[in-house]
Amino acid sequence: MTDESAPDGGKALSAGLSERLGTGKLLLGFVVAVVLIYLLVVASGWRRVLDTLEGADYTWVWVACLSTFLGLAAWGKAWQIVLAVLDIQVEFRRLVVTYLAATFANYVTPLGQAGGEPFIAYILSRDTEASYEDSLASVVTADLLNLLPFFNFAALGLSYLLIRASLPDNAKTLAQGLVVLAFGVPAIAYVGWRYRQRVEDLVIRLAAPIATRTSRITVEGIRKRIDRFYNSLERIANEPRELLFALVFSYTGWIFFALPLYFAGRALGLPLPLVLVLFIVPASTLAGLTPTPGGLAGVEAALTVLIVALVPAIPWSSGVAAAIVYRVASYWFVLLIGGIASLFVIMRS
């Protein structure tokens, strides 16, 4: 890590946040989300929801927050291993801070998790010695590694449901979405790798009109960047042992990221089986595509529907309370530590 690269990290994060948030967009997104959550609570019986929350054992809430942090740290470690394959050595403590800062930026923007990889790679490349192409390759690889436990755990929970009883109608849509993603994402990744020359030609054709209007972008420069990106992916793919090691941390991260829902159940005294949690958390993640910051309101609604549908003994108001506690640990807590990390990245410049 050179002295010159550190300032760029803070500037990149500041500029990236300003660009992604825009004037008023952040506040408007949160206002809309909070109103929707309020309506969900009111529709569920706000007094019953509050009574359930007031009776919570908040020791389990802190345990849930710790679990979330350990999950993020594990994903950061997987990222570090992938970077090491590219001969990029980054101190783990520094990388975790960068990862939390970039995660914060994604969490506060609508649809931030969809297409956030280029932004995270941008922050990483400015805050470390990694090139943008190496950074993007490492982020894409880490995301693909995280998808395997995502689908495995979802499949485990879904299998449990199908063996135990038929899947409720209001949970079938999310289950079908998981199946589509389970086959669709690997297929897209394979096509992008197998026909990378065609992908490169397509990108260049799309970028050529822009390149003719500005001197900052050239067709040859774009071609070199794409080639370096695919070369980085190939170097990573040629180290299966390191990828397997990173995969261990990907699985560990997902376990710790799913456990907060189980701990939310313990905090509220709700009978939430751990195996069901492994299905509910990935399934509710699909609702994160709701166009609000971090999928606010959409994820809470999906969690409530799934909890009540899959565990009939849990009333709707308690399901809402469990969703709120889970989101406190898995979203609001991440905003807190991610915001602190963002300030640290900016200040260390």
Automatic annotation (TrEMBL):
<feature type="transmembrane region" description="Helical">
    <location>
        <begin position="58"/>
        <end position="76"/>
    </location>
</feature>
<keyword id="KW-1133">Transmembrane helix</keyword>
<feature type="transmembrane region" description="Helical">
    <location>
        <begin position="270"/>
        <end position="289"/>
    </location>
</feature>
<feature type="transmembrane region" description="Helical">
    <location>
        <begin position="144"/>
        <end position="163"/>
    </location>
</feature>
<dbReference type="Pfam" id="PF03706">
    <property type="entry name" value="LPG_synthase_TM"/>
</dbReference>
<keyword id="KW-0472">Membrane</keyword>
<feature type="transmembrane region" description="Helical">
    <location>
        <begin position="243"/>
        <end position="264"/>
    </location>
</feature>
<keyword id="KW-1003">Cell membrane</keyword>
<protein>
    <recommendedName>
        <fullName>TIGR00374 family protein</fullName>
    </recommendedName>
</protein>
<dbReference type="GO" id="GO:0005886">
    <property type="term" value="C:plasma membrane"/>
</dbReference>
<dbReference type="InterPro" id="IPR022791">
    <property type="entry name" value="L-PG_synthase/AglD"/>
</dbReference>
<comment type="similarity">
    <text>Belongs to the UPF0104 family.</text>
</comment>
<feature type="transmembrane region" description="Helical">
    <location>
        <begin position="330"/>
        <end position="347"/>
    </location>
</feature>
<feature type="transmembrane region" description="Helical">
    <location>
        <begin position="26"/>
        <end position="46"/>
    </location>
</feature>
<keyword id="KW-0812">Transmembrane</keyword>
<feature type="transmembrane region" description="Helical">
    <location>
        <begin position="301"/>
        <end position="324"/>
    </location>
</feature>
<feature type="transmembrane region" description="Helical">
    <location>
        <begin position="175"/>
        <end position="193"/>
    </location>
</feature>
